[in-house]
User: Fold this.
Amino acid sequence: MTKKMLNEKMLLISIIGTLEALKEEGLSINEAEKYLFSPHMVQGLKEKKFNKSIIFIIEKGCELEDIASLLPQRYTDNIEELKQEALTILREYEAFEQKFWI
Assistant:
């Protein structure tokens, strides 16, 4: 597994965890935007030529605050949809076989 693929896989794991934490109210949208769901993150990932599908999930994650305030009844469903998209992409990556990732 290349370093870029490993970084993409770790990012997907972070996306899934962040979305789960949002759904379970262990993390605020404001915090999630600081960690992950920000235009700054999108730009950095584009510059590093990350998988476009992953970038698209991050871009949609940037809209969660708007969804929560304008369509609160769709908020949890939207989080779950993003999580499922991330899981689908994650399954495409080969298994990590090294002993440690750091």
